[in-house]
Amino acid sequence: MPEGVEESAPADVEQDAPATSIRASIAASMQASADQRFGSTARRAAILAAVVCVLTLTIAGPVRTYFSQRTEMKQLQASESQLRDQIADLEAQKAKLADPVFIAAQARERLGFVMPGEIPYQVQLPAGATQSGAPPQGAGPAASSDPWYTALWHTIADAPHGISPATPLAPVPPPPPPPPAAPGG
Q: Cα angle vertex 27, ends 25, 28, to 5°?
C-alpha cells in the first residue's frame, strides 16, 4: 500500500491544482465583478443625482408660482374684506339718507331749516362767554378793515408759498407849513 499512498499523494496534488486554479479564477471573477459593481454603483448614483436635479429644477418653477399666487390670494382676500366693510358702511349711510326723519334732522342741524309753522330761535351768548367745544378766539383768521378781495389779492400776489405779507408802512405825513411871518417884525 505504500505504493498506493505514494501514488495517491501526487494524484491529490494533481486534483488540488485544478481546484486551486478554479478557486483563483472564481476569486478573480468575484474581484472583477466587485470592481464592476463598484463602477456600476457609482454610475447609478450619478444618474440618480442627475434625475433628482432635473426633477428639482422642473418642480421649482411651479412651486415658486404656487407660493406667489398664494400670497397674492391672501392680499386679495384682505382687500375684499376691507371693500365689503366699506360697502356695509355705505349701505348703512344709504339707509340713513333714505329715512325722512334723518334728512329733516340734518336739514335742521346743518342748514338751520325749520318746519312750516315753527319759529326759529338762535341763542346769543354774552360777549365774555365762550361756547363749550368752540375753538379759541385767536384760532380764526384775524379781522381786517380791508375788504375781502383785498385780503385775497394780498394772499395771491404778495405771499408766495404761504409766507404772510409784511404790513405796509404808513405814509409819512408832510412837514407842517412854516408859520406865517409876523407883519412888523
A: 60
